[in-house]
Amino acid sequence: MQRNLEKKLKQLFGKFPIVFLTGPRQSGKTTLAQMAFPSLPYVNFEDISLQEEVRLDPHGFLKEYNSGVIIDEAQLVPEIFSYIQLYSDRRNVPGQYLLTGSQNFLLNEKISQSLAGRVGILKLLPLNYSEISENYDANIDQMIINGGYPRLYEQEISATDFFSGYLQTYVERDVRQLKNISSLGDFQRLLFLCAGRVGQVLNLSSLCGDCGMSVPTIKSWISILEASYIVYLTHPLHVNTNKQMVKSPKLYFYDTGLLCHLLKIQTRDQLKQHFAYGSIFENFVVNEILKFQLNQGEMPNMYFLRDSKGHEIDCVVPKAKYRTLYEIKSGSTFSKTFTKNIEYYRNENDKGFVLYQGERNSEFKNTKIRNIETFLKNLEGEKEIS
């Protein structure tokens, strides 16, 4: 399957000596790298014997792959980064090292220390709507339940079976690599509690009360969830008005399949009837906007608006001269009230969208009303985000 990020990956590898491809474990980084550059040799630093070999003789390793190499899970041998800098500077040509990794802050730390100015950075998230719909038969609700991890689709694994193993591996292995957590049970409980708060403004005091842990611990553990591509935070957009705006971020999951697994949602009926269906659907749509931006090689550029009176815009994409305001509704029947918050916040040049599950595609009070599947199918062609 061709990934939407492949074009940008090839473009950057033709300009930079080093490209870092990061993203969640099993999002398809290795497959993408090998499909994009089939002639490059491949090594995986999860091989313990190879790790030791590289640590003992980094010069020998890099000389062996002097014509280019794909290095998987590169952060597992952090010592190699300074040597990669040295060898890439000597050759001074693009397309030397394609590095992948699934631990965000470890990669960023090493990049900032050793490879700044020499590296192009891309993030590959699980499959988006277009990648799934072009290759598999699934509707929106089923996509939400399954999530976007390629292996689940390619091997026809049930979401329950896939995420049971994924979650166990994540908690027992990846979390330990990131930080020495004394109670993995408490950490897992926090993960379940975060699932119940998806799409909500993050209330640390409430989480502390439910977890029985301190605010510093909660913050530290949420940073681990962010670093390992489990959750991410969107922040409120600063506006120069007299409205009292909230200052806390909103919490989303990078993959709605894992989110549904944590919430014990296995069927479309369970999803439709779940108290958090609106927030889960919002998470799915916000993920699609995020994936669109990342697949263009852009930095994430998404915010939300919410004031003390509860007027909220689910997603805001700011540009130099205007903002695009997105209201996301899980319902299939259009209501005139869907546009009221867009009208409340809209500036003169702002664009407004209501994204919902009904069939109507039209305009109301200068706001575009879009069926979500229509919007996602036309996303890249219409450039409606930009």
Break the fold down into its secondary structure elements and pairings:
Layout: H1 6-13, E1 18-22, H2 29-36, E2 42-44, H3 48-56, H4 58-64, E3 69-72, H5 80-91, E4 97-101, H6 104-115, E5 119-123, H7 129-133, H8 140-146, H9 150-154, H10 159-178, H11 184-195, H12 204-211, H13 215-227, E6 231-236, E7 250-253, H14 256-262, H15 268-273, H16 277-295, E8 303-306, E9 312-318, E10 323-328, H17 340-345, E11 351-356, E12 362-364, E13 367-371, H18 372-377, H19 379-382
Parallel strand pairs: 1-4, 1-5, 2-3, 3-4, 6-8, 10-11, 11-13
Antiparallel strand pairs: 6-7, 8-9, 9-10, 12-13
Helix pairs in contact: 3-4, 5-6, 8-14
Strand order of the largest sheet: 7-6-8-9-10-11-13-12
Large-scale geometry: globular
Strand segment count: 13
Q: So how many helices?
A: 19
Q: Are there runs of 5+ residues with pLDDT below 50, and where?
A: none
Major beta sheet summary: 8 strands, mixed
Distance between the termini: 26 Å
How big a fraction of the residues is strand?
15-25%
Number of domains: 2
Helical content stands at 40-55%
Q: Give the oligomeric state of the chains in this entry, treating copies of one chain as homo and distinct chains as hetero.
A: single chain
Radius of gyration (CA) equals 22 Å
Average pLDDT metric = 91
Structural class: alpha/beta
Short overview:
The protein is an alpha/beta fold. It has helices at 6-13, 29-36, 48-56, 58-64, 80-91, 104-115, 129-133, 140-146, 150-154, 159-178, 184-195, 204-211, 215-227, 256-262, 268-273, 277-295, 340-345, 372-377, 379-382; strands at residues 18-22, 42-44, 69-72, 97-101, 119-123, 231-236, 250-253, 303-306, 312-318, 323-328, 351-356, 362-364, 367-371.
